[in-house]
Design brief:
Layout: E1 2-7, H1 28-44, E2 47-52, E3 68-70, E4 74-77, H2 89-96, E5 101-104, E6 116-119, E7 122-127, H3 133-143, E8 149-154, H4 161-164, E9 165-169, E10 172-175, E11 189-192, E12 204-206, E13 209-213, H5 217-225, E14 230-233, H6 236-239, E15 250-253
Parallel strand pairs: 1-2, 4-5, 7-8, 10-11, 13-14
Antiparallel strand pairs: 1-15, 3-4, 6-7, 9-10, 12-13
Length: 257
């Protein structure tokens, strides 16, 4: 069984962090409806969704991906790069503690989960404005105990590594080569975003399906032509908070069952 932890939209979402986009009014009802459809889609493809309650004091707390890296063996609770987001991790640690033994990234290390792309036993970690070499070194010390290797990846022009590259199928990745160099990634096939859709590299590959945003129709066409099995979602309101598909969940195996 696959578990997907999500968190309800914070009533304070209007005060979210923004780095690469301009602030626009967010319609919280629309955002919540898009978030519900996202959760429904996860259920449809076989996940058990556990929605944590909204956190008023943490505007960005719906973006649970950034707070932990969950592997089959352990979970690493991150120390998010944005100071406003550090308090989000304690309720996530509580939620994960019944599923995994926990490790923690400590100061001065920082890691956002959005910077960690796992492919097999390799964790690619984006050296973005949010994750630093000290955080990555701490991650390496922990995960190497379980046979994983860590590769630091340079990213430019976007928030996180997974703004620039995500898994699109078992053997392929969707990439915006303007934001990350493909040279780091071994044994994968590359599908490039359409040049007019630079923000289109974040898809969520889960249980054989690729959840993908309706905001990037040209890239979507390419993915369909490549034979991907797509589930298209409107996440345009979530994008106003600089969030995308992977950010809204933490998905892992329930190894207790
Ligand atoms: C932030 O800047 O932290 C949020 N407004 C967006 C976080 C998106 N998270 C992700 O891509 N993993």
């Amino acid at each position: 069984m696959r578990i997907a932890i999500t968190r309800d939209v914070s009533p304070a979402i209007a005060h979210c962090e923004l780095t690469h986009i301009k602030r626009e009014p967010i319609n919280i009802k629309t955002m919540r409806a898009q978030h519900r459809s996202y959760e429904e889609c996860l259920k449809d493809i076989g996940c058990k969704v556990i929605r944590l309650p909204a956190e008023l004091e943490f505007p960005d707390s719906m973006f649970v991906e950034d707070t932990a890296i969950v592997l089959d063996e352990i979970a690493v609770i991150t120390r998010p790069g944005a100071a406003s987001r550090r308090g989000e991790t304690s309720s996530i640690a509580t939620a994960l503690s019944s599923y995994r033994k926990l490790f923690h990234i400590e100061a001065p290390g920082t890691i956002d989960g959005g910077d960690v792309l796992r492919i097999g036993k390799t964790l690619y970690i984006g050296m973005s404005g949010r994750s630093n070499p000290e955080g990555s070194a701490q991650m390496q010390r922990v995960v190497s105990l379980f046979g994983y290797q860590v590769v630091n990846v340079e990213v430019t022009g976007c928030l996180h590594l997974k703004s620039a590259i995500t898994q699109a199928s078992k053997d392929s990745v969707l990439i915006n080569p303007a934001w990350v160099d493909g040279k780091y990634f071994k044994d994968v096939r590359f599908v490039e975003v359409d040049i007019s859709e630079p923000e289109g590299a974040n898809g969520l590959f889960e249980n054989g399906s690729l959840l993908y945003s309706s905001s990037f129709p040209k890239t979507r066409k390419k993915l369909i032509a490549e034979g991907m099995s797509l589930r298209t979602l409107d996440v345009s309101e979530i994008a106003k908070a600089e969030g995308a598909l992977t950010c809204c969940s933490l998905i892992f195996n329930d190894i207790r069952s």
